[in-house]
Design goal:
With 243 residues, this protein is α/β, with parallel strands linked by helices. It has seven helices and 14 strands. Helix 2 packs across helix 3 and helix 3 packs across helix 7. The longest helix is centred in the first third of the chain and has 12 residues. The radius of gyration is 17 Å and the shape is globular. It comes from Streptomyces shaanxiensis. This is CoA-transferase.
Length: 243
Amino acid sequence: MEAMTEATRAEYCVIACAEAWRGNGEVLASPMGLIPSIGARLARLTFSPDLLLTDGEATLVRPDGTAEGWLPYRQHLALVTGGRRHVMMGASQIDRYGNQNISCIGDWAKPKRQLLGVRGAPVNSLNNPTSYWVPRHSRRVFVEQVDMVCGVGYDHAGGARYHRIPRVVSDLGVFDFGTPDHSMRLVSLHPGVTLDQVREATSFELVLPDDDVSRTRPPTAEELRLIREVVDPENTRVKEVGA
């Protein structure tokens, strides 16, 4: 059978996340979340062999988790502030210009719901490229305006030297900001997803490509083997995105 018919929705999401690091060279990948982590490891094993992976503490690791180098905190900070890290974070809310919220829902002074807090989102998004992963695409996440800016979007970046949002990946498709005003654009739909579904699940009007909306590229047979046998043999990916 062809790879496209064999691949699950979760595996398409892995591929879409992995593609965020294509061509990045020797930068530190900082995936936050299960699918992005699988994607970063797959990218390292295939088309981005110079990618650096970390255990999140002080060690650079190979895709199998074994140590391959030391990353002292001062060097980590140098990577973070010098544009040599590419983060993929989650988002409780994200708007048309890429502002991300992980802090609270509602008025900050009296929120309806308290979330993670701002954490390192401003530093991440201003000082190195930051992509986003959303496992459940809905109008509650893709909002007209975030309740609080944590990750900084294009309309608040103020020309920061290393600010860039390469892509947003959800369980429905892939998005970027390659438009004149940096408004979110639909890049591709995952198989089985319709444009109407994405529009219904998004609170703002997405920019559409000039030609037909493409489909997220399928994993190759080798990529499927690596995902299933090497990177994620326990199939943990379906915990974030159903099969």
